[in-house]
Each structure stands twice: as structure tokens, then as C-alpha cells.
């Protein structure tokens, strides 16, 4: 549920993370899940994607807590860009956003919603000891069809998802667990130097609780480990208890959190 004003902006009991560490994972996330259009206003990174409605791809991402000059004017400029794309003005607030901007948005009555955790795990031989060898799909169309089915997404998202996957610059592995040619689970693993980022992990609703999610995560990480990755990371919504339980059992721990904000409706 959205919150406003004096209510807590985020429920984060963890110590404040080092900003250099946050910047590293934020940059990896932008490379691994690229927006169609990118603009900078100072150190605010504006990401917009006409073909896909995901908040990560359609948000303002402040990257320096000290960049607080002319906040109102810059918000107005961002609003015009979002309006041109037919997207609601959305800010993605990580620890890089800073207190001053949060207070400004509080004062303007912006809502807070959709908190997520960024988690990491060391990627060594022990971490992937139980992983099965799995070769990622080369057929992007087949993977997209499987991902849309597993996520329960509308087929209209196919062109947008195809554009995103085709724009990923680091090496990306597309993984699917199938049974009788029916997709049960999907995941994307982006190998970026010593990092392995996991994205779009999902299990078909009718087949959850059977270990498919664990299998596909470990197989993806083994693939990245064999290519030189030494650390795994991912993003997960804070209220997804099933996913959090899975990731923690594999060895992931929280680094920092982020959430989204939108202005009050006119």
C-alpha cells in the first residue's frame, strides 16, 4: 500500500551501505537490463522504454545524494519526458538518492511503494555444488514465449521484451526448465566481469514448491561461475517471502534496498 508524508519511507533495518558498493550494483543493473532511452539531468539518470511498462525501465534514478540543485524544475522536466512516453512519472529511490530529495518528495505528498532488496552471494564451488549442468537457450523467441507464459504476462509485451534482451551488452544466458515441452521456470543470468546478475526469475504458478526455482537459479549460477563470475546478485520485492526464503537458503544476503515514488494524482 502506498504511504505518504510523515509515514516511514522505507522499512530498512540494515546498516547504511557503502555508497561505492551501491553504485557498483546500480551500474551493473543498468547494463544488464537496459532501457530504450537514457537521459541525464545532472546525476539523475532518466530511463524510459516505450515497449515495456516495467518500473525499472521507466524511472528517474538519482545517483548522487548531494545533487539537490533546482529539484522542482528538474522534476518538471522529467515529468514532460514521461508524459511524452505515456508513462507515469516515477522515481526509483536507492541509497544514492539521499535524504534531501526524499524530504522534498515527502513535502510534496509523493507516495511510496514497491520496496525491493538487492542481495548478493559469494559464487564459489561450494555455492554451486548441487547445481545441474544446463545449456542456455540460443533461441530468443522460444525463451520469450516461455517467460511470458511462466510470468502470466500478456503477449503484447513480446516486442518490448525482445528489444530489451537484444540490447543487453554483457553475455546473457537464457534458461528454461521444461517438462513435456511445457515451460515450468525461467531465468536470465547476465555475466558481467566477476558479477553474475539474475533477472526475471519465475516459476509457473501451477508448479511452485517443487524445486524448479532452486534448480534454475543454481544452474544459471554454475554457467556464470564457469565463465569467471565470482559473485552473484539479484533484486527481489521485499514482500516476496517465498523468493526471499529460496535466495537466503542458497546463500544470498541483503546489501541495500530501494523503492519507488510517484507524485499525488491531480
UniProtKB/TrEMBL annotation:
**What's a Gene Ontology MF term here?**
acyltransferase activity, transferring groups other than amino-acyl groups
The N-acetyltransferase domain covers which part of the protein? 130-266
- This protein's source sits in the domain of life called Bacteria
Membrane-crossing segments per the record:
none
What is the scientific name of the source organism?
Mesorhizobium alhagi CCNWXJ12-2
Q: Does the keyword Cytoplasm apply?
A: no
Name it: N-acetyltransferase domain-containing protein
Q: Which PANTHER family match?
A: AMINOALKYLPHOSPHONATE N-ACETYLTRANSFERASE-RELATED-RELATED
What SUPFAM superfamilies does this protein map onto? Answer: Acyl-CoA N-acyltransferases (Nat)
One Pfam family name from the record?
Acetyltransf_1
Whether Acyltransferase counts among this entry's keywords is yes
Keyword terms: Acyltransferase, Transferase
Amino acid at each position: 500500500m502506498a504511504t505518504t508524508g510523515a509515514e516511514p519511507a522505507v522499512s530498512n533495518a540494515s546498516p547504511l551501505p557503502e555508497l561505492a558498493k551501491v553504485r557498483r550494483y546500480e551500474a551493473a543493473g543498468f547494463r544488464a537490463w537496459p532501457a530504450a532511452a537514457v537521459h541525464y539531468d545532472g546525476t539523475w539518470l532518466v530511463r524510459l522504454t516505450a515497449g515495456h511498462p516495467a518500473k525499472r525501465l521507466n524511472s528517474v534514478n538519482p545517483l548522487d545524494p548531494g545533487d539537490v540543485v533546482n529539484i522542482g524544475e528538474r522534476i518538471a522536466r522529467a515529468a514532460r519526458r514521461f508524459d511524452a512516453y505515456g508513462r507515469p512519472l516515477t522515481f526509483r529511490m536507492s541509497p544514492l538518492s539521499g535524504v534531501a530529495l526524499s524530504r522534498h518528495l515527502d513535502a510534496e505528498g509523493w507516495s511510496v511503494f514497491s520496496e525491493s532488496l538487492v542481495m548478493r552471494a559469494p559464487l564459489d564451488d561450494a555455492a554451486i555444488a548441487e547445481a545441474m549442468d544446463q545449456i542456455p537457450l540460443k533461441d530468443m523467441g522460444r525463451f520469450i514465449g516461455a517467460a511470458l507464459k511462466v510470468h502470466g504476462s500478456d503477449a503484447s509485451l513480446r516486442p518490448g521484451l525482445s528489444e530489451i534482451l537484444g540490447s543487453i551488452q554483457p553475455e546473457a544466458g537464457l534458461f528454461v526448465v521444461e517438462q513435456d515441452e511445457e515451460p515450468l521456470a525461467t531465468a536470465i543470468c547476465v555475466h558481467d566481469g566477476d558479477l553474475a546478475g539474475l533477472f526475471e526469475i519465475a516459476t509457473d504458478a501451477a508448479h511452485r514448491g517443487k524445486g524448479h526455482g532452486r534448480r534454475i537459479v543454481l544452474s544459471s549460477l554454475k554457467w556464470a561461475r564457469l565463465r569467471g563470475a565470482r559473485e552473484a546478485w539479484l533484486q527481489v520485492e521485499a514482500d516476496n517471502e517465498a523468493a526471499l526464503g529460496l535466495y537466503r537458503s542458497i546463500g544470498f544476503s541483503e546489501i541495500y534496498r530501494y523503492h519507488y515514488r510517484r507524485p499525488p494524482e491531480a
